[in-house]
Design a protein that fits this description.
The chain is mainly beta. The protein has one domain: Porin (Beta Barrel), CATH 2.40.160.60. It has two helices and 14 strands. A 14-stranded antiparallel beta barrel has the order 1-2-3-4-5-6-7-8-9-10-11-12-13-14. A hairpin with a 3-residue loop joins strand 10 and strand 11. The longest helix is centred in the N-terminal third of the chain and has 20 residues.
């Protein structure tokens, strides 16, 4: 009987730990457009989020862009703010971002992330990229480490983008900085509709865990984007519906999004991004 009781206590402790760790983490550092589209963004490459996502997407569009973004999920106690600069007007596209994030529920962590990304395009067909990220985490989990992302984006047609990326390819043996891979696809239809889909793959457990992210953007009058998205995250056990709106002119503008968790810990996240293109 004592053994059975001890086993039940261990199972309850494991369940409680899993619940704590199911809060949003460093994979959720997405800007407003991406958040609104269910987290499907790695082959889009328009904003500074490409630096921490698939760095190959940095060279998809020629621009010099300054971007600031922030998100806050009150029920989860998850939030972050970031600033970034991207320059793809040269042969070698480059960008840098700094992000401060707080997350972890009762096991609170604070993260300072600095990321430098580079990308090179072989014509308009193949884009390759690499990013180096410095992590400083304090709180329930601590690290001062460097890891790397790398990716490729192919454009077999002007309206189609296919991407693949690897994240945290340098192991730092820290649970918040685990390795995963993303396959992505997006399209531009009649210059107004942009559907996107990302498949995130985690091979760190005996059974492969997957996250499915899908969204679509409808551009009204070439200035007012409306976005909706859905995400089923089998890695961290989340399910989200999201949506957002925005306004932009000549590449500069503002995006707003809201993400609603279905069940789980009932997260309610709002996000705002400001873009200035020079």
């Amino acid at each position: 009987m004592r053994r059975i009781f001890a086993l039940l206590l261990m199972l309850l402790a494991s369940a409680a730990s899993a619940q704590i760790e199911s809060t949003p983490d460093l994979r959720d550092l997405q800007h407003s457009r991406n958040m609104a589209m269910g987290g499907a963004y790695e082959s889009l490459g328009y904003g500074a989020e490409a630096i921490g996502g698939n760095p190959a997407a940095l060279s998809l569009f020629k621009r010099y862009q300054i971007e600031a973004s922030g998100s806050w999920d009150i029920p989860q106690g998850f939030g972050f703010g970031s600033v970034g600069i991207a320059d793809s007007t040269n042969v070698l596209a480059a960008g840098v971002t700094y992000t401060f994030a707080t997350y972890g529920g009762t096991e609170r962590r604070w993260a300072h992330l600095t990321t430098l990304g580079l990308a090179y395009a072989f014509g308009d067909l193949i884009h390759i990229g690499i990013a180096v990220r410095h992590h400083v985490l304090v709180g329930a989990a601590n690290t001062n480490s460097v890891s790397m992302n790398a990716g490729v984006v192919a454009k077999p047609a002007s309206w189609l983008s296919l991407g693949f990326s690897g994240h945290n390819l340098i192991s730092v043996y820290q649970k918040d900085i685990s390795r995963y891979f993303v396959a992505s696809i997006s399209s531009q239809i009649l210059g107004q509709l942009t559907p996107a889909f990302d498949l995130r793959m985690d091979f760190n457990q005996p059974v492969v865990r997957l996250a499915y992210c899908a969204g679509i953007e409808w551009l009204i009058a070439q200035s007012f984007p409306v976005r909706i998205g859905y995400q089923f995250d089998g890695i961290a056990n989340h399910q989200y519906l999201s949506g957002g709106i925005g306004w932009f002119s000549d590449g500069s503008g503002i995006d707003f999004s809201y993400r609603h968790e279905l069940g789980g810990q009932e997260g309610r996240l709002i996000s705002l991004t400001l873009k200035l293109q020079l």
